[in-house]
Amino acid sequence: MLDDAFFDYLRGIDCSDVEVYSIPEGSVVFPKVPLMRVEGPVAVVQLLETPFVNLINYASLVTTNAARHRHVAGKSKVLMEFGLRRAQGPDGAISASKYCFMGGFDATSNVLAGHLFGIPLRGTHSHAYVSSYMSLDEIPDRTLRNKDGSKICKDFVSLVKEWLCKIQAADSLRNVFGDTNQSELAAFASYALAFPSSFLALVDTYDVMRSGIPNFCAVALALHDLGYKASGIRLDSGDLAYLSIETRKVFHAIEKEFNIPGFGKMVITASNDLNEETIDALNKQGHEVDAFGIGTYLVTCYSQAALGCVFKLVEINSRPRIKLSEDVAKVSIPCKKRCFRLYGKEGYPLVDIMIRESEPSPKAGERILCRHPFLESKRAYVVPQHVEELLHCYWPGSSDKPRAELPPLLKIRSRCMQQLEKLRPDHIRRLNPTPYKVSVSAKLYEFIHYLWLNEAPVGELQ
Amino acid sequence: MLDDAFFDYLRGIDCSDVEVYSIPEGSVVFPKVPLMRVEGPVAVVQLLETPFVNLINYASLVTTNAARHRHVAGKSKVLMEFGLRRAQGPDGAISASKYCFMGGFDATSNVLAGHLFGIPLRGTHSHAYVSSYMSLDEIPDRTLRNKDGSKICKDFVSLVKEWLCKIQAADSLRNVFGDTNQSELAAFASYALAFPSSFLALVDTYDVMRSGIPNFCAVALALHDLGYKASGIRLDSGDLAYLSIETRKVFHAIEKEFNIPGFGKMVITASNDLNEETIDALNKQGHEVDAFGIGTYLVTCYSQAALGCVFKLVEINSRPRIKLSEDVAKVSIPCKKRCFRLYGKEGYPLVDIMIRESEPSPKAGERILCRHPFLESKRAYVVPQHVEELLHCYWPGSSDKPRAELPPLLKIRSRCMQQLEKLRPDHIRRLNPTPYKVSVSAKLYEFIHYLWLNEAPVGELQ
User: Fold this and answer.
1) B140 CB contacts (<8 Å, ≥6 apart)?
2) Which intervals hold domain Nicotinate/nicotinamide phosphoribosyltransferase (chains A, B) (predicted)?
3) Which CA distances in Å does A37 have to A330, A357, A396, B382, B390?
4) Residue of B131, B235, B307, B410 to mutate for A, most A C-beta atoms under 10 A
């Protein structure tokens, strides 16, 4: 157990002697290049290790995961984050919503995240809402005013029932439909009466093709009579490829049968344990889904559950430090460094390079040797067309420079999208992507290996 | 975007008409048996769905994961939760610490969780702490008072150096050690000067066997001269089985060489991406680890990243409701229910049973038919020795009954341990465990299937 005085000490910590440099949020980053450089008194900076690593790891991981989902779904699909109930508590879910939006999602079902960050909200009613109804008799107020306000339909429910009969009688649909579930029909009609301009129905409470779809269509057609356009349906179980294709056929048949232009294009949303792989499989099979609601696999980051960012001491009192390890991937790159991204003629980033702070910056049009940090033979001269410095000062401590303003979430999201578009496609293809190269300057290379040799204990060859 | 008025409505929601029944926290539970029963006005109860599911899913999952780690590690090992830096933000980490403790962990490295819940705190210094030192010259104050206060050692650092020479000269150790890293030695000596009664060293910053271990032993032996007992070491990389065994040999050799009783039993802590499988593999190889620090795989729940608890409407206005699905596992069990655990003669739980609220409770010594909820042929008579009702009222709404006090965390943790010990071992063995049976009464069985038949749309056989 700790002394209360320790918590008082923590409360009183002063970060005005700390300087923080960071790559702008929403940037594409690569392993080995530091995301942040933190300078200051060693005790304070060591206390920052855990909060910084905690705040960066999951945020970066879930943003990346969202971007991967966007990549496989394609630009034209609507992606909705539905992860609240599977995240690590309320705040884990808030982080998930924020960073999924940053990574390219369009909306969240997390109302608080929408409120806090202005993320568009999307969702549907629940299965419980559907099963809370028993029959159409439970709808007391059945009046609905036309969208243009011109007249009032006194019995919307009867209009829905008429449409259901017409659908069931239609030659082009006769083979599809029998009796539908009446409690589901009551739930849909009631929902449409409350939200006639945003009627989106969850159609799998009882049976998608034999109940959910005809019930939805009857309500959507009744709304259409009054000038409203229904939003669409959501599938939450079963074979999503098959059900979406069958549903689309029904929508097209209704468009044709009743001459309702645009009914065939009604939005089909799919959910139910979706992830990169299942979306990829749906794409290969063919499907008619317009929008995906993704939860569990998105917020728990199924393809990689944790990101391993670490915080390493690289220099103290102007003396560079190295952390060795039997695992080369865990050897830290010493020294206070500056980091640059070098771009080629086609506008793509070619390579990132880390240099010692005392070295001159790389310049556009000038040849520079880029070396692999650990492998002697991996090196190449590069003449960049354009050079971008990666680390910017966001917290200059007590100096005269102002602390940086952070851009709004939407701007960070745009940066993220643009950065991904700027990458050479082979770096981000799903199968066997070309690794992006991260290098060090010749001077830094020599210094790393000088330090490595001198810090390792004397002994046999490693 | 939502209207601000909606948030005002949410803020004003009154739960005094809601009653909440729950299985006590820290109980072992099985699929299909409701963890909670929530009664009240439908709108309010539907709004409780997402927060309840969010708060229960991850908490239950990570507690279960912790209990699985305890099961594979065995009772004698110390288990420490080190997950803060890989959890879903600060609050995801707080949940992880709390529920890992509940599931059988001994301590956490999350200082705030220790402060909030009284969980014992354990951890070591960082690699950065070690590499922040350059040499022994950096230690200004080298005095250390004997543990019993009897005298003061004026130069603890020289004492450490003497011990390092003795270790290096000792015949029984000569083959092991060469020169050690001096910055590491400085870091250890400095740490011991500040915390002589709790010296625990992270020994893999440079090289475990050639630097970390001899440096640790020199400091531990110097502390021993002054009456202090070092706590031990932590291995955070490399082959943990091999390194722990080699380290133990050195500790035993030192005990013998310098006649220091107990030195051989020095605590060896291991960390570095541990999980159930790696601990199981270590057990099979043989190792000398006394304590495990587990982070990433624990808090991200590697073996199953999410728990799929759902919230289903089972009755409205005294009318039972069912949610159907093409996936039988997703069909909900209708009706307001009471749930019981039936125990056999040996004291083990035999089966859980759900009954309709109107049915009489099962009684000890009386025969009762337990039926699989969906499969006609799976049924058996059971005569329980003891019957436990599972759901208890914690929030009786506005009734005269008092709201239940929640037990302290330590008591919940004890309940969890005891419940696991009460289970028949074949239900919790790692390979092919016998599934524990969950049943319904004959009346509830008939009712489920009556409702299923009548709610499903008329059509072909399913």
Assistant:
1) none
2) 228-330
3) 18, 12, 12, 66, 54
4) B131
- Inter-chain touch B88–A92, beta carbons under 8 Å: yes
Tens of pLDDT, residues B321-368: 887 776 777 788 999 999 999 999 999 999 999 999 999 999 999 999
Which residue in the set A59, A316, A457 is minimally distant from B211, CB to CB? A457
* Cβ separation B115–A86 shorter than 8 A: no
Q: Do residue B335 and residue B274 come from a single domain? A: no
Mark yes or no for CB contact A86/B312 under 8 Å.
no
Q: The domain spanning residue A368 has which CATH number?
A: 3.20.140.10
Look at residues A50, A374, A119, A87 and name the one whose alpha carbon lies nearest to residue B82: A50
For residue A87, the chain B residues in CB contact (below 8 A) are 54, 58, 88, 92
Nearest Cβ partner of B2 from A115, A297, A316?
A115
- How far apart (Å, rounded) are the C-alpha atoms in residues B108 and B119? 7
Q: Chain B closest CA to A383's CA: distance in Å?
A: 36
The H or E element containing residue B112 is helix B111-117
Tell me the C-alpha distance between A225 and B237, whole Å: 69
A86 and A188 together in one domain? yes
Residue A46 domain flag: no
The packing angle between helices A213-225 and A156-169, to 10°, is 120
Distance CA A345, CA A362 (A): 16
Pair (B194, B237) in one structural domain: yes
| Number of folded domains that form chain A | 2
Residue A203 lies in a domain: yes
Q: Which of B205, B312, B459 lies nearest to residue A128, judging by beta carbons?
A: B312
A88–B89 C-beta distance less than 8 A: yes
pLDDT at residue A3 in the model:
81
Can you give the CATH number for the domain in which B178 is found? 3.20.20.70
CB contact under 8 A, A87 and B84: no
**Domain limit, last residue, from A299, A334, A354:** A299
Cα A179 from Cα A164, distance rounded (Å): 10
Nearest CA in chain B to A62: B88
User: pLDDT > 70: what percent of chain B?
Assistant: 97
**Contact assignment for B85 to A57 by CB distance below 8 Å:** yes
* Together in a domain, B272 and B374: no
Residue among B264, B206, B204 nearest B240 (CA)? B204
Distance (Å, rounded) from C-alpha B159 to C-alpha B220? 11
Same domain? A292 vs A327: no
* Chain A residues with CB-CB distance to B93 below 8 A: 54, 88
So what's the ipTM on this one?
0.91
A320, A299 Cβ separation under 8 angstroms = no
Last residue of a domain, one of B238, B269, B299: B299
Considering the domain architecture, whether residues B95 and B220 belong to the same structural domain is answered as: yes
The 3-state DSSP class for residue A25 equals: coil
Of B91, B210, B325, the CB nearest to A89: B91
Which of B62, B180, B319 faces A134 most closely, judged by CB atoms? B319
Inter-residue contact B73 to B279 (CB < 8 Å): yes
Residue A305 lies in a domain: no
Which segments of chain A have a pLDDT < 70?
Answer: 1, 175-177, 326, 456-462
Query: Based on the domain organization, do B147 and B100 belong to the same domain?
Result: yes
Q: How many beta carbons lie within 10 A of that of residue B417, not counting itself?
A: 17
Phi first, then psi: give them for residue A314, nearest 5 degrees.
Answer: -115, -15
Whether residue A221 sits in one domain with residue A96: yes
Range of the domain at A371: 4-35+316-455
Q: Which residue has the tokens 């998608």?
A: A208
> Whole-angstrom Cα distance, residue A58 to residue A298?
12
For residue A304, is it within any domain? no
